[in-house]
Amino acid sequence: MQIEETVTPYRRIILIAIIVGLISGLGALFFFEGLKLGTAFFMEGIVGFHLPKEGQTLQDISQWAPPEHLWMILPVICFGGLLSGLLVYTLAPEAEGHGTDAAIKAFHGEGRVRWRVPLVKAITAVLTISTGGSAGREGPTAQMSAGFGSIAADLLGLSARERRLAIATGVGAGIGTIFMAPLGGAILAAEILYKQDFEAEAIVPAFLASVIGYAIFGLVEGFESVFGPWATSWNVSQIPFFVLLGVVSTAVGLIYINTFYGANRVFKKIFSRFNLPNHFRPLAGAFLTGTFVLALAALSPEAAIVGLGSLGTGYGFMQLALYNVLPIGVLLVLPFAKILTTSLTIGSGGSGGVFAPGLVIGGATGGAFGSLLHLALPGIVPAASVPVFVVVGMIALFGAISHAPIAVMIMVVEMTGDFSLLVPAMGAVSVAVLLIGQSTIFHEQVLNRSRSAAHRD
Fold it and tell me: In this predicted model, what pLDDT tens digit does every residue of 219-241 receive, in sequence order?
């Protein structure tokens, strides 16, 4: 009798997975199209900045150039921050910041998301990212899909257990769909909720939901990997260096976590002390971000590339790194610039995810590390191997700080289209996860299922 009460019937699981998959696919599709339209209007139309884009060929991406009127970035990014803040703090304060944490909180809490949250999150994330704010598209997609899963649970009259299952499935399906990484996204649904555990019940419905979402999204956007084709070259003798990269990634990841939440505390403290409305916090973060980018651009052409690479998702600049065309000076500074702009953008209350910035920070860290090894040991680490360090850096850093090493490893490999990278990635991410301890970029994660209200009974 106890088993019947605690195990969700398989027919209801299939129904949940199908509904969440359909919602995730359509939601991710409309959100992605909104981002494209917003970026074309603000960054290309107003600023005149044709960003390098992930997935472009080397010939196409090499045509990018800094905007002629770089100063226009400041009013544009401030407009995005102002409008986003007004919408979030007026309509749905829980839509601030990075949405994945909010979805995790909903799972461990009552399992309910207000109906208005997905729409508010989508609009404000489009405003934040397309105007140049340093944020990712996975967090909003996760919160949107989780929110739609909660709405579906309301309409179907699901139990609290089934509602939480719908939320977890939505997180995995949403992220897997927007990144064209259905396998990694499905595993992420089970792994990202805890620091040292899995939500095993969510894996199977997340598989089905991710496949459905992936099919819907891909039919419109295509089924190519996020990052365009690039040459892979690594050998077994380099494995010790990949393991060492795991150590370096841990150090940079800890800087990312502490800077991000430190900025969040500072913004809250200042606005509380001077009794300022929270509605203007994202505007303050946007102003500081734009000012920082303009200051870098005034220093040198290489510094300008760093500043521009720290805007938006930054994926286009990781595509350049995979083609091995970013200077080592840019790779050395970009991780810390991206940490700062992300902390200012999302830490101030702007709407967006921390996944994409985390991948850029890790990728630039790996690229810088690989480039230094190439300069010191060109016989062991040829130039052709540097892009592999970029990918392994992405996996090691974000896999550690998210406590989702398996999911992130599979997702990044799906995004780059080369499964041979699993071997060096395994060495780097295992070391990084062991060293990161209990530090996490998702503060709503709990240690294991016994600490979650979802399993308290």
Answer: 999 999 999 888 888 999 999 99
